[in-house]
Specification:
The complex is a heterodimer of chains A (258) and B (335). In chain A, 36% of the residues lie in helices and 26% in strands. Chain A is an alpha/beta fold. In chain A, β9 and β10 form a beta hairpin. Chain B contains 13 helices and two strands, in the order αααββαααααααααα. Classes of the chains: A alpha/beta (258), B mainly alpha (335).
Chain lengths: 258, 335
């Protein structure tokens, strides 16, 4: 079910501004890959190219190849809407649909994909909420609005919503940066469980978090403000945090800059 | 608006501990600048209430004078004879005409306005949406008498085709049958009112749709929603209360519209079963047509009808607020 991502020579623009340049990497299925790097280095932009959300921004465009197993996401005739049904995303700030109940939030993606019987929806919603470790907290108020939950619960609701459609890949853009430490821990535990089923890519500003949750870590950097961001190196997380092969990575990780 | 609240706020404000802060806060409230400003804002607020109360008292007093002498039933009489002795007049026709013409206008204008607003915010390229929005603003600036003249000279002569079509296919319903008379009827008035209230509903809806947080739209996009599905899942639910408010602004204008209706409608004091047959009247149109030739008593009677319009408008606004408040916990505002 989980798929491998193979990126080669990817460059992304905002209008005439080149945000990231010539990025190539492979993301293994059923693993967690963390993107770290200073602000503005393009790690979020790169993440958004992986489900074609980058081009939603006015002026956003992409050159290069992103292969999901054998399928080129930017190939001719590929509908970005279909890509996003295969590659789910969780955002920095929890964004449940404010006008929908908890149940409807989780069922939203399924309802987009076609008709389901009520009993099927019930099953998927329960399974997804359990998968997001939220079921026990909300099972008695599924028809209450999702915006009434705490921030951490809302973020797990968003994860449940994303995994309900059984994506091949789950992208997470700083999913814990708006949460308190306990909620963060809950999400990190959840990431550990989800990687059994999905390919997970997570952007984080928290290096301890990258070290805790990821199998592989990619370090991004930019030469100067206004320059495009580049991938400096990607390696096993253990190696990146103990003995990186590039000096800039070591400087960043040891806190000498950024 | 209340001095004592401001006082506590200032004293309790964090980051200014110690007696010095208290002194500063206490002195702050008595500075002449603050006093003048508080006086001005409070005065403006009170002035508004005084004006409202004055209007209500004036309307009610004059209306009571007229209604107490009315020999017919004020609510159900189908005539407006204030010069008879004893006088007999009622608002049944006006209530019907005002509500029906406004409802027609809303049924036509709200979907079109919402569609235009969605087009401008979510489909049109930016180069195009600016000029279109400007043209819609212009439409709002056209005086209502000009709409009335356009309605009488252009719209009325061109309604024949539509009326004939409606009569042929929907005439059996009764409400769309047409006797072939000049189309100076409720439907024509409704169409004209729809055009007049279109800009205000469009503009307010566009403003609301533009404020839909990016993250709500991205939430839908990331689930694999198409553009229309994003609108259905994120934009419309978020904009719902705003569109209701916008519609109420439009409805307010439609209910009270005077000159355009008076120019287009050929008024009679009866209720036509068909929306296509000429006749009927609205509150504002009736006041405008009769006021200049009315006696002192006739004016009081017209004022009584104005009071009813005032109350209807209040009820409509109240109902709109109820609709908005009912689903507050689901509204986009607390996200």
């Amino acid at each position: 079910m989980a798929k491998r991502i193979d990126v080669s020579g990817l460059t992304a623009y905002y209008g005439s501004h080149k945000a990231i340049e010539d990025i190539s990497m492979t993301v293994e299925p059923r693993s967690v890959t963390a993107f770290i790097g200073p602000s503005g280095c393009g790690k979020s932009t790169f993440l958004r190219t992986l489900n074609r959300m980058h081009e939603v921004t006015p002026g956003g465009r992409v050159e290069g190849k992103v292969m999901l197993d054998s399928e080129d996401l930017y190939g001719t005739g590929i509908d970005p809407v279909d890509v996003r049904r295969e590659v789910g995303m969780v955002f920095q700030r929890p964004n449940p649909f404010p006008t929908m109940s908890i149940f409807d939030n989780v069922a939203a993606g399924l309802r987009l994909n076609g008709k389901y019987k009520k009993s099927e929806l019930n099953d998927v919603v329960e399974k997804s909420l359990k998968g997001a470790n939220l079921w026990n907290e909300v099972k008695d108020r599924l028809n209450k609005p999702g915006s009434g939950l705490s921030g951490g619960q809302q973020q797990r609701l968003c994860i449940a919503r994303a995994i309900a459609v059984e994506p091949k890949v789950l992208l997470m853009d700083e999913p814990c940066s708006a949460l308190d430490p306990i909620s963060t821990l809950a999400i990190e535990d959840l990431i550990g469980e989800l990687k059994e089923r999905f390919t997970i890519v997570i952007v984080t500003h928290n290096m301890q978090q990258a070290a805790r949750v990821s199998d592989r870590t990619a370090f991004f950097n930019l030469a100067a403000v206004g320059q495009p961001g580049r991938l400096i190196e990607i390696d096993d997380t253990e190696r990146i945090f103990s003995n990186p092969s590039v000096q800039a990575t070591e400087d960043y990780i040891s806190g000498r800059f950024g | 608006m209340d001095i004592s609240t401001q006082h506590t706020d200032a004293a309790a404000s964090p980051g200014l501990p110690g007696p010095a802060a208290h002194q500063r806060a206490a002195r702050g409230a008595t500075r002449p600048g603050d006093r003048i400003f508080i006086g001005l804002t409070r005065g403006s607020g009170i002035l508004l209430l005084v004006i409202m109360a004055a209007i209500a008292v004036f309307l009610t007093y004059r209306a009571c004078l007229a209604i107490s002498d009315d020999q017919g039933d004020f609510l159900t009489t189908f005539e407006w004879n204030t010069n008879l002795i004893p006088p007999s007049f009622g608002i049944a026709v006006l209530v019907y005409g005002t509500i029906v013409s406004s409802v027609i206008a809303m049924v036509i204008a709200v979907p079109v306005a919402v569609a235009i607003a969605l087009f401008l915010t979510h489909y049109a390229p930016r180069r195009l949406s600016g000029p279109i929005a400007y043209v819609i603003d212009l439409l709002a600036a056209v005086p209502s008498i000009v709409y009335g003249l356009w309605g009488a000279l252009v719209l009325v002569p061109h309604m024949d085709g539509l009326f004939g079509w409606l009569d042929e296919y929907l005439g059996w319903t009764g409400i769309f049958s047409w006797d072939g008379g000049a189309p100076r009827s409720m439907l024509t008035v409704g169409v004209l009112l729809a055009i007049m209230i279109l800009p205000i509903i469009t503009n307010v809806s566009r403003e609301v749709f533009r404020q839909v947080p990016r993250m709500h739209e991205e939430a839908a996009l990331a689930l694999g929603a198409t553009r229309w599905e994003v609108i259905r899942m994120s934009v419309l639910p978020f904009g719902r209360s705003g569109v209701i408010s916008a519609s109420m602004l439009g409805l307010g204008r439609a209910l009270g519209e005077t000159m355009a209706v008076a120019t287009v409608l050929s008024p009679t004091f009866d209720i036509k079963a068909s929306l296509l047959d000429p006749g009927g009247g609205t509150f504002a149109q009736n006041i405008a047509s009769k006021f200049s030739e009315a006696t002192e008593f006739g004016r009081d009677a017209l004022i009584a009808s104005g009071l009813v319009l005032f109350v209807i408008t209040l009820l409509v606004n109240g109902a709109a607020r109820l609709i908005i408040a009912r689903r507050k916990e689901y509204s986009g505002a607390n996200a």
